[in-house]
Amino acid sequence: MSYQTLCKKSMLFPGEMLPCKLGSTEIVVLWPERGRPRAFDARCPHEDVSLLQGVFEGNMLICSAHGWVFDSHSGEGLSPTGCELREYPIRVAGEHIEVDLDDEGAEPA
């Protein structure tokens, strides 16, 4: 695993979304209600639209372009079903949140 610093831990709180960019990779970090922080590739599987401007409603991420809805705990498509967001491993290291973009196991959630 090759973790890289993504952001300061103090930038994310329960129930919030944090849009990030690491190099050319767009990442959305979600902290769902009654869950833990999760990092997903911020490209909607429908027409590759950025999710950095998506709407986060505690347990769902909604694509602002066409209204596709994803479960913020798993990345699974809720509307429509049969799609999912790629999840990246994250960890808290001191005062930072780190992400592993190179993890071979980073398949769609």
Rounded mean pLDDT is: 92
Taken from the alpha-carbon principal axes, the silhouette is globular
Give the helix proportion (percent range).
Answer: under 10%
Topology order in helix (H) and strand (E) letters: EEEEEEEEEEE
Give the low-confidence spans.
105-109
Largest sheet: 4 strands, antiparallel
CATH third-level topology: Rieske Iron-sulfur Protein
**Structural classification:** mainly beta
Number of strands: 11
Using the coordinates above, name the CATH class: Mainly Beta
Order of the strands making up the biggest sheet? 2-3-4-9
- CATH superfamily membership: Rieske [2Fe-2S] iron-sulphur domain
Sum up the structure in keywords.
109 residues; mainly beta; Rieske Iron-sulfur Protein; 4-stranded antiparallel β-sheet; disordered C terminus
Q: Your description of this structure?
A:
The chain is mainly β and 109 residues long. The chain has one domain (4-99): Rieske [2Fe-2S] iron-sulphur domain (Rieske Iron-sulfur Protein, 3-layer Sandwich), CATH 2.102.10. It contains no helices and eleven strands. Keywords: 2Fe-2S, Iron, Iron-sulfur, Metal-binding.
What's the SSE blueprint?
Layout: E1 4-8, E2 17-22, E3 25-30, E4 38-41, E5 55-56, E6 60-62, E7 69-71, E8 77-79, E9 87-88, E10 90-93, E11 96-99
Antiparallel strand pairs: 1-11, 2-3, 3-4, 4-9, 5-6, 6-7, 7-8, 10-11
Brief account:
The protein is an all-beta fold. The protein is built from no helices and 11 strands. It has one domain (4-99): Rieske Iron-sulfur Protein.
